[in-house]
Design brief:
This protein is 72% helix and 0% strand. The chain is built from ten helices and no strands. About 6% of the residues have low confidence.
């Protein structure tokens, strides 16, 4: 028939060129694209994590949590994704139990993260879970006093760690441990430089 196109032209018309290597090229494409997407997952997760914090800064908490959840689905092995979810849940007060679990999952991957461990301790603290808070604060305390030239943020966190820890021990009626922490506070942070009231 005059209107019938050759096979090669029909395939070209649909954007595919037939040829001896066509099935092989198609199979390679079908294999490579998913692999590339899989390898890009950590990068996409980092992007989504940053986007989640951007949403949080705009007070779009639901969007922030949704994007943070997507980041976790892409890369559950990245501790930062768990900490992001934990921070967002803590700041919004949406679900403290989920926040606690997210902190624990993140710290299982990155146990040396003192900042995240302090945040976990503070969540226990505000929930008045004194024993759990003290346990985490002691782990932060064991990291030791930051060097004099360490960032001010670390100095402030260590001082806050000791003050909250003393409070926990007093709530737990553990006077000896509370006094031990109080002595360290006085020794390391004399009254003239200690401007943060104790809780």
């Amino acid at each position: 028939m005059k209107n019938e196109l050759p096979v090669r032209e029909i395939n070209h018309h649909h954007g595919l060129k037939a040829g001896p290597g066509f099935p092989v090229r198609l199979l390679v494409t079908l294999a490579v694209v998913p692999l590339a997407l899989y390898l890009l997952r950590p990068i996409l997760a980092e992007f989504m994590r940053a986007r989640a914090y951007s949403y949080a800064g705009l007070a779009r908490q639901d969007d922030a949590l949704r994007v943070a959840a997507n980041a976790l689905r892409l890369d559950e092995k990245n501790a930062g994704n768990w900490f992001t979810m934990a921070n967002l849940l803590t700041n919004t007060g949406n679900d403290d139990d989920r926040a606690l679990e997210a902190y624990r999952r993140g710290l299982a991957i990155q146990p040396e993260n003192g900042g995240a461990r302090f945040d976990l301790a503070m969540l226990h603290f505000w929930r008045r879970e004194w024993a759990a808070a003290a346990e985490q604060l002691e782990l932060v305390r064991r990291e030791g006093m930051p060097a004099e030239k360490a960032p001010a943020e670390l100095q402030i966190r260590y001082r806050a760690t000791l003050m909250r820890l003393e409070h926990c021990y007093r709530e737990l009626h553990m006077a000896e441990k509370a006094e031990d922490v109080a002595e360290e506070i006085t020794r390391r942070f004399p009254p003239q430089v200690r401007d943060e009231p104790r809780p």
